[in-house]
Amino acid sequence: MDAEEYKVRGKEMVDYIAAYLTGLRDRPVIPSVRPGYLRPLLPPGPAQQGEPWERIFEDVERLIMPGASNPASTELQIVMTDWLVNMLSLPDTFRHDHPDGCGGGVIQSSVSESTMLALLAARTRALTQLRGDVSQDIGNDALLNSRLVGYTSDQAHSSVLKASLVSLVRLRSLPTDLEFSLCGETLRRAVEEDRAQGLVPFFVCATLGTTGVCAFDNMAELGPICRQEGLWLHVDAAYAGTAFLCPELRDPLRGVEFADSFVVNMGKWMMVNQDCAVFWVADKRSLQSTFCVEPHYLQHEHSGSVIDFMHWQIPLTVRFRSLKLWFVIRSFGLDGLQDHVRRTNKLARYFESLVREDPHFEIPAKSNLGLVVFRLQGPNELTKTLLRRLNESQQLFVAPAMAGEKFIIRFVITSQFTTEADVLRDWRLVSQAATDLLQGSAAKDDTSGMETCIVGGREEETTLDHQSQVKGV
Ligand code: PLP
Asked: Which one of 125, 210, 327, 467 has the largest count of C-beta atoms within 10 Å of its C-beta?
């Protein structure tokens, strides 16, 4: 939707809300629909082509309003998360309507919260198994908890560490290979070492599309080990998950059939407003036994026979995040969403080609999807200064990361509005800032003799001023 249409549609929406408020007393207080009313009214999956807003908006009154905020919100969430399983080519066991009835998706605010849910569910599963294992000298839950150990890679997002801090379980950060990917052998060795120490391995968080360089952990290797060792495999595909809309980009999904849970943040790349992370589990029972509390005031006539997301998450109230997901999926259609992914990837490759043409720069890690990581040749201080100057210019925003020992700048394209001209403009800003920096440094070098390090020197020798706040990713 462009700005002009947005103006028109926004006004229509305000009128709709005003009419709703005016007619509020004429609407039923409690919806008259039966559980499961919505699915038969919706198609089994998204349309190939995008639909005009009029048609989508008509369906709000026709399909959603009769179900009021609930059950409509729960039911749309169920259908949207099922649609997305197929759209992203995830295992069918993640669908609510899978015949074994164990799995399903739930929409959370963020990947960070979802990863915490996964870790807590994995902990419940591990503690339940330990309590049932007569060969173990078990002790109480606190003691058991202290024996648990989870794994992730040294490239994982800090939210995995946060989840382990909240749940007081040990987390090991395992080294990645030259492509920044966690492989099976590393995990196997860590599990063996920990078992020998009397610890209980229980959880692995693999990343598909790491924050730093968009690397992919090797799920085809990790998956079978997790299955064999009884470890819960959680997959953080926060950003890169959207790429799996395109069949040609699904290679990193090999091994996904071993995943116990999987999460994608639809606000990162799928053009959904922030606050929409879709989190799937293959078996909801551990999640439900983690969160199920049923005080009298929350029981209702369908308790136990319908999906109650309050038993899948921390909040009681189900937010209507599925609505914006439905709007976006219908507005673009599958073709439009795939085009978006392909177009932004192509723009990233264009940026990458511009960087590669300039000998002052290097690309220290393989560029994947819409992300290009680059740095100035030479000590890290140079790239840090460049990053600070670029962001201070307020004409573009780039974020830092580390690729091994190398400080890198991340350039990522996710917006439907970015054009080739924008990318070229950004590159010119980067290139000009680099030229200014290198010339300024060379001039200083002439006068002070202190900065012989600037091209190819050692980092410790530089005197370049840098105040940039280099935060963890
Ligand atoms: N995981 C990865 C791989 C990320 O790149 C990010 C954010 O950049 C996150 C998790 C955190 O996502 P959220 O903001 O949804 O918690």
From this structure: 210
**Which pLDDT does position 301 carry in this prediction?**
82
Per-residue b or e along 169-194, where b marks 16 or more CB atoms closer than 10 Å to that residue's CB: bbbbebebeeebbbbbebbeebbeeb
DSSP one-letter code for 208: B
Residue 62 Cα to ligand 1 midpoint, Å, equals 36
Q: Is the CB of 238 under 6 A from ligand 1?
A: yes
pLDDT at position 470 is: 28
Q: How far is the CA of 112 from the centre of ligand 1 (A)?
A: 6
**Token pair belonging to 169:** 């379980």
Q: Is residue 446's pLDDT more than 70? A: no
Which residue shows structure tokens 């932004």? 344
Residue indicated by tokens 């059950």: 71
The residue with tokens 């960070």 is 112
- Is the preceding peptide bond at 91 cis, omega within 30 degrees of 0? no
236: Cβ below 6 Å to ligand 1?
yes
- Do 400 and 471 touch, CB atoms closer than 8 A? yes
Closest ligand 1 atom to Cα of 237: 3
Chain centroid offset of residue 436 CA: 36
CA pair distance 212, 223, nearest whole angstrom: 23
Helix (H) or strand (E) holding 6: helix 3-22
74 lines ligand 1 (CB under 6 A): no
